[in-house]
Amino acid sequence: CLIAQLLQGLNHRAFQKNKTETRRSQFDNLDRPAMRPLPAQPYEYAEWLNARVNIDYHIEVDRHYYSVPFQLARTQLDVRLPGMAAALEEQHLQPVTQSLSFEDRFGLIVDREVSHRDNQRLGRLLKGARLKHNACVEDIDYRSGRGLDKAVLASLIGCEWIRQAQNLILTGFTGCGKTWLACALGNQACRQGQSVLYVRTSRLLEEMKLAHADGSFRKRLMQIARFDLLILDDFGVATLTQSERQDLLELIDDRTTKSTIITSQIPVKAWHEVIGEPTLADAILDRIVHGAHVIKLTGETM
After folding, report:
1. What b/e string do you get for 262-288 counting C-beta neighbours within 10 Å, with b at 16 or more?
2. Of 40, 41, 110, 250, which one has the fewest beta carbons inside 10 Å?
């Protein structure tokens, strides 16, 4: 307690040359604005080793030999084993595993490493997706009157439509669950290793407007084009301006080999009026609607 009082007095004592400044004021003015929050994920130490797979499809790491798929024989691999290290430590702490054969123990370690990598990748994908709802396909409500066909949803849950670069359109009144369903399918795509981005359409178009101003428009288009699945929420809330129509066309045109989910309160047949300009509307809708899956949600507000 005494040290804390002395430290506080030292930090608030004025400098000799500049009586208006203290260590505390210098920290608040210079250091604090540059501080950043700690990473969301704890730091994980791991070593990368480069190893060559022998003809007997084994690699040597620290004088220990590990088998890999035989197809990798005579190739160079980068080896990172954080999950394996944790599993090995757990085996040392559990005497029951000492009675297992080397092959069984090593199989458990490899399974742990695979699970560790899958969980790390899923965490990164979900964080980058920025989904509005923490929804998953297991919780979909198939009650009658909602307009959901289990056979159709089953095919969408398989995510083959994403691998085939098809689009999905969800329409219905406010509160019927369009956004929630879109997020559930986005979550499922992440679980299958697909990159996803959720964004409200109006906010994205505003970002595009700002990107024109600072010269980052093309860079932003390229970033969005890389996502396997783009979720555009609340399309058609207001009639598009000329610049927004052009930006939307550029965005959709860059994603002809990727998939997009669009949610809207407006029926698809009325989208021409929302877009506003017949020529651009035809071009945009031809790229979105052609070959797309369309689900019209009905029923009471959720």
Report:
1. bbbbeebeebeebbeeeebbebbbebb
2. 40
